[in-house]
Design goal:
Elements lengths: L1 E4 L4 E4 L10 E4 L16 E4 L6 E2 L11 E5 L6 E10 L6 E8 L10 E6 L2 E7 L9 E6 L8 E10 L6 E5 L1
Parallel strand pairs: 1-8
Antiparallel strand pairs: 2-3, 4-7, 5-6, 6-13, 7-12, 8-11, 8-13, 9-10, 9-12
Length: 171
């Protein structure tokens, strides 16, 4: 089975344990855990707030030092995107995996985190529903994209209001 994650895209994996489901090698994504920090060039991002997406603030990362933090400027609307393009080997079983934390919930029903593949929405995490203040593991079978071609994987968030929550994405 091949594994692919927002922050970890693997061509061949070691045994995947329940305690740490993203225990892979031979990544298809460059810098899958964001450990390049502020010198990051593999991931492209945009943000309307001007916030730095790659952060190393204490408690942000689940493992390592760095995380991608989307949104979160209180009182301001922020639209943030984070993406990377990768080639998925043809005919393979592929899973997109990541850990996500949403420590502050605005409760306004507008804020959300969305996963898009090639510009098409695949998953939408609403502000007041399925993400919590603890890291949650998420995976999605994307074997339909295992065609030997390049595909763009994008996470995007919209955060508004006060308080304005951020979405922390880690490996």
């Amino acid at each position: 089975m091949r594994y692919l994650a927002a922050v970890l895209l693997c061509a061949a994996c070691a045994a995947v344990s329940v305690a740490d489901p993203i225990d892979c090698t031979d990544n298809l994504f460059s810098d899958p855990s964001f450990e390049d920090g502020l010198t990051e060039t593999s991931w492209s991002y945009t943000t309307t707030s001007g916030n730095t997406v790659f952060q190393s603030t204490a408690g942000v990362a689940r493992t390592g030092t760095w995380a991608a933090v989307l949104g979160g400027q209180s009182g301001k609307t922020d639209f943030t995107t984070l993406h990377q393009t990768a080639t998925i080997p043809e005919g393979k079983t592929v899973t997109f995996q990541f850990w996500v934390k949403h420590p502050v919930n605005s409760g306004n029903g507008v804020d959300h985190l969305e996963l898009l593949i090639d510009g098409i929405s695949r998953v939408n995490f609403a502000d007041n529903t399925n993400i919590s203040s603890s890291f949650l593991y998420f995976n999605l079978d994307v074997s339909a994209f295992a065609d030997g071609l390049q595909h763009t994987f994008q996470l995007q968030s919209i955060t508004t209001g006060t308080p304005s929550g951020s979405y922390w994405i880690v490996d």
